[in-house]
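Thread amino acids onto this structure.
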C-alpha cells in the first residue's frame, strides 16, 4: 500500500482511486473478461491491505446525521470511481453492481474519443496541421437559399465520425446532416478565421449548446473558405 493509512474520508477517496481500482483490475476473475460483482472483489482486496480495526474506524458521512466507517467509505468510492472516472478500467453493466474489465474494443473507442476531445483544444498540432473544415445541421433546420443554423467545425480525422461524436449525448431526435467538408492546411487557424468572419457579420448564434453555430448558408461558408485559403 503506497498511500499511508489515515482515518479520513480523503484517504478513502485517494486509496480507492489510485490503488484499489488498479489492483481490482488484476484479480483473476476480472482479468478473465467475465462479468463480476464489484463489491465482492473489492471486499477481498480491501481486507488484504487494512486490518479489521482500521476498517471499523468511524468517520463523518456526507449526511450530517449519519456516521460511516472506513470500510463503508472505501466500498462507496470504489463503486463510484469504477462507474464514473473517465479512465476507469471497468465497464458498469448496471445489474446489481456488475462490472467487466474494458476490452480492447472499449479501449480503442476510448482512445478515439480522447483524440476527438483533444481537437476542441487549441493545441499547436491541430492549429498547424492539415485537416478538414466541416459543416452540418439537422434536416428539420435546413433551408434553401436563406440563412439557417449551421455548425462549422474542424477535424484532423474522419469528418463523419467527428460529426457523430459532436452529436453524442445531444438531446436531438434526428440524425445530423453533413452539408460539406473542405480539406485545408493549418486547419485550426482556418476554422478560427471562418468563425471570426461569420461573427463579424452578426451570424453567430449565442443561445445554443456549443460555440460554433451560425445562421448562414453553405454558399457563404464556401466563399469564406475559398477566400481564406485562396482556392
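Threaded sequence (231 positions):
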Amino acid at each position: 500500500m503506497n498511500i499511508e493509512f489515515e482515518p479520513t474520508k480523503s484517504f478513502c477517496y485517494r486509496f480507492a482511486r489510485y490503488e484499489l481500482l488498479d489492483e481490482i483490475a488484476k484479480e483473476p476473475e476480472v482479468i478473465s473478461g467475465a462479468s463480476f460483482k464489484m463489491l465482492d472483489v473489492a471486499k477481498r482486496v480491501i481486507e488484504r491491505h487494512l486490518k479489521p480495526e482500521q476498517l471499523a474506524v468511524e468517520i463523518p458521512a456526507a449526511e450530517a446525521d449519519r456516521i460511516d466507517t472506513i470500510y463503508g467509505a472505501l466500498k462507496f468510492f470504489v463503486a463510484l470511481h469504477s462507474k464514473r472516472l473517465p479512465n476507469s478500467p471497468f465497464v458498469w453493466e448496471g445489474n446489481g453492481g456488475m462490472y467487466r474489465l474494458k476490452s480492447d474494443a472499449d479501449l480503442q473507442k476510448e482512445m478515439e474519443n480522447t483524440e476527438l476531445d483533444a481537437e476542441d483544444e487549441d493545441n499547436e498540432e491541430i492549429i498547424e496541421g492539415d485537416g478538414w473544415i466541416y459543416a452540418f445541421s439537422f434536416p428539420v433546420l435546413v433551408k434553401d437559399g436563406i440563412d439557417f443554423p449551421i455548425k462549422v467545425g474542424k477535424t484532423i480525422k474522419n469528418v463523419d465520425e467527428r460529426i457523430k461524436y459532436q452529436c453524442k449525448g445531444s438531446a436531438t431526435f434526428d440524425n445530423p446532416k453533413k452539408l460539406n467538408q473542405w480539406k485545408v492546411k493549418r486547419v485550426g487557424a482556418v476554422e478560427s478565421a471562418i468563425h471570426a468572419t461569420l461573427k463579424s457579420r452578426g451570424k453567430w448564434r449565442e443561445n445554443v449548446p456549443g460555440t460554433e453555430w451560425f445562421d448562414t448558408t453553405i454558399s457563404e461558408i464556401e466563399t469564406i473558405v475559398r477566400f481564406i485559403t485562396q482556392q
